Every structure is written in C-alpha cells, then in structure tokens.
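Worked example 4.2. Below are the chains of a multi-component assembly; read each line carefully before continuing.
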Amino acid sequence: MASETESATMTDVKQTEEAYEDIPGTWVFDAQRARLGYHLNEFLYSLMKAENRAAFLADEAGYTARFKMSEEQRQGVLRRDWNRLLALGGVSYALAKLAFTDHKSYQFMASQMTGMSEKEYVEMMLKGGRSPDGWRSKSERPGGA
Amino acid sequence: MAKIIAGVGTSHTPAIGACVDNGKAGEPYWVPLFKGYEPAKAWMAKTRPDVVIMVYNDHVNAFDFKIIPTFALGCAEEFPIADEGWGPRPVPSVKGYPQLAAHMVQSLVLDEFDMTIVNEMQVDHGLTVPMTLLYGTPEAWPCRVIPLAVNVIQYPAPTGHRCYMLGKAIRKAVESWHEDLKVVIFGTGGMSHQIQGPRAGLVNTPFDTAFLDGLSRDPERLAAIPPLEYLRDAGAEAIELVMWLIMRGALGERVEEVHRFYHVPASSTAVGNIILESR
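Applying the procedure described above to all two chains together yields the following structure tokens:
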C-alpha cells in the first residue's frame, strides 16, 4: 500500500518547476521567488497596522527605505507596478495590502494586472470569467508569453 | 464519542465579507450569491454542530514569511480577528476548543502528521467569510472553532493526496475523543480562480463541476490530481481546493451530497458550496 501511494503521488521537482514557467501571464510564488521577495513581502506585511499605513502614505520613499528590499522592488512599490512586483517575488495577498492602503480592492489590483479597466474586468467576470483555453501554455500565446 | 457528521465545502472570497460588513448584500451583483447560500444556512441552523473544524488558509496575516507552517492547528482559547489592511472585520472573535485541539495534535503527530501547534493566532477572511456565509451576522458565533491553517500561498502546497490522508487521520482523532460532540468540518477556498498577473480572472467551470461531482463519487481520483493541473487548468489560486480534500477525507468512506451551489463571480472567484453528510 505504501509503495503504491508513493508512486502515485511522487512528483518530479525539476519538471514541475519548468512547467510553472510555461504558464502564461502567471508568476508562480514558489520557494525561489519567495526567497527573492522576502524583504518586499515583509514591507507589505507591515501595512497590516493602521499606523504603518499612515506612515507609508505620508512618506512613501522614507518608509520603504526602512526595509531591505532591492531598489527595483522599491521603485515597483512607488509606481504600483503590480506585475513587476510579482516577477520580483511579491505575492498577490501581500500586494493586496498595498492596494488596500490605497483604499482600492483586490478586484482593482487584479484588473490592473490584466491591463483592463476595472469596469472591463468586472464585465469579463460577469460573463463567466476568463476561459483557460489559450492560457494553459506559453506556446498557445502570441509571441510565446 | 465525538463524531464528524458532515462536511461543508465553501469558497472564502474576501469581497463577500467586505460586502456584508458594508451593508451591500442587497445589491444586484450580490443577490444571487446570498440567495444561493440560504439552503446551507438553513442546514447549519438545523444541524447546530458543537464544534467546527475550519480548514482554511491564512493570507499573509497570522503568518508572514518568517515561518511557513504547512499544517498549523489552532490550540488557543480564542482567536482575534486580523486587520488585513482595511481594519479588522466587525465580526465576533472566534472561540477555540483547546482540549479537543490538544487531543487532535497528539493523535495526528502519532499518526505521522507533523502538525505545527499554534497557541496565539489572528484569523483572517479565510476563516471568517465561511462563518459569515453559513451563520450570518450573530452577536457571537454559536459554536467552538478549531482552525486548521494550511499553506497554499507559497508553492508547493501539500498535495491533494496528503491532504486527503490528513482528513482520514482527523476523523480518527476526533472519534477517539471522550465527549459526545457533533463536529462539522469545513474545507474552504477555491474554486477556480486566479488573482495575479495578466491571466487573472481565469475560471474553469467544467473543472469545478467535475471536482464537486468527484467529492461524493470518486474522491480518490480528486486526491490524485497533481498540483500543476490545478494551477494550469483552474488558476494559480485554485490550489486552495486541496483543503476541500482534508474535509472529504474526514467524512469516512460513504457520503451523501445534500446540497450544492455554484456561482460566478464573486470578485475574481468562481464560488462553490457543497454539503456532504457522512453515511
């Protein structure tokens, strides 16, 4: 029994990591990306406290300078460049705290990531959402992205 | 003897909580969703469990990235409501059941599930939105809650198979507790959704329907779905569905589906709700 269940569920890590990278429009938050994003995410986590949200909004450059994130990550924060922040190891749930600090919703943040207006995004969702067809592999996308 | 009598699968979309808290549940966008949850609420009011085991995930609220437990069991007397960035939700704090939780830890670790024991923890929308959906807005929650937080944020999440086996071990742990208690276990999160990147908004209704069907008909097949398949076919955040397999594993071999509801959208999410009674 034990060997049966093992063979049914053992996963090839290398193959899985390559497959993650083949999913279009997605930055899988795996252990490597989490490592890159650690200090960025700790900054975002600090926005759980109301006094920190106020301090950040009062002086964004000064507040972010307290955290050991890279300059590229810091610029991404100041510009609210959501997709860049995902690529640099930010995780969406932590990024949402930045959106909430701006009094925006998850939905707003998600629409920005897709390049749609919030209204267009809501309309897409009301029509049943984005179909996975054409979005399973980068090979299905124009330009391979 | 304590007994797990039923399982509830439900999404835990934060916008649902925000909608209730801001008095917007009557808006046309939300009406079909809350109407769809009425039968589940009625079932809950009739069933009145003493204890709810809430399988959910924390969303960078109780746990930042300093420590990432795969399975964390809440053993505290009380769990305060987290401020996720817009102030804590105005819902009652959550009363735990430390005696039963401690017993579960002992049983689960001896059964080779190495649980992280959490004695102080804030709980976020992952736990409170299912409470709101199933209980509405009472002054105090009418049951004790044992939170089981699962890491589905940083990949890899535990596999569906591992979760299913953990559910079986939870059933054994609860059934070896001396008090006569009615226990309902929740599996939360999902269904298909992605809230990051240009692919955000992905919904796969055929995937979700097959998943709901499989819970009663062929849970072993669901337990064998590889993580990549959730991610690729149902969205980066659909991996949360492995938590439904903990719930399913805890119900024993035979279950009867007594209620199902499916709705798109709540914000970026395909919402699913199912009630399975142990037979």
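Take a moment to check your reading of the output against the notes. Chain A touches chain B through 60 residues (CB under 8 Å). Residues 50 and 101 of chain A are 9 Å apart (CA to CA).
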